[in-house]
Amino acid sequence: xxxxxxxxxxxxxxxxxxxxxxxxxxxxxxxxxxxxxxxxxxxxxxxxxxxxxxxxxxxxxxxxxxxxxxxxxxxxxxxxxxxxxxxxxxxxxxxxxxxxxxxxxxxxxxxxxxxxxxxxxxxxxxxxxxxxxxxxxxxxxxxxxxxxxxxxxxxxxxxxxxxxxxxxxxxxxxxxxxxxxxxxxxxxxxxxxxxxxxxxxxxxxxxxx
Length: 209
What we know:
It is a single chain. This protein is mainly α and 209 residues long. It has 2 domains: 1-55, Arc Repressor Mutant, subunit A (Orthogonal Bundle), CATH 1.10.10.60; 57-204, Orthogonal Bundle (Tetracycline Repressor, domain 2), CATH 1.10.357.10. 78% of the residues lie in helices and 0% in strands. The protein is built from 11 helices and no strands. The longest helix is centred in the N-terminal third of the chain and has 32 residues, at 2-33. The radius of gyration is 20 Å and the shape is elongated. Mean pLDDT is 91; it is low at 1-9. Residues 35-54 bind DNA.
């Protein structure tokens, strides 16, 4: 049994190591300037090793995008207690969403992905479906449950989820995207998140909320 499972674990670890290095190269040099040779050199291996895992630079970039989306989703929605009240859960989501979405790391990746979406629309589609679209669907699932409990008065859970996400990052997103202001502090994110929750509940909350 050990002989069949260990190679897969080693391969997964190697794949993650490649993605770690590729991420740094893509962010430092941009997609066009990045090369498989540079990634292999930083990794300390050969291009042949890279091609054993990824058939092309495009495929490697797609894997980078997908991994960023997974990390982003888990940073926002992971480990929220089922026993949390709606207001508590929304406050947690808002705080995490602001800190994650407006972080330097997330925005550097976003700028790179948007730039590549012009050249390769499928990259934009991949990012949207695995990132924003999936996040909206996950939040809409919570809102559907809260509506069924009589806590929210909503007809379209996905529209409500989009509205909430817009409230959380709206004031600072463009300034951060343009690198005009620094990352928000924990206190700023908490204050902005609480403001978003209050506004959202005034719009959609019932008396039970």
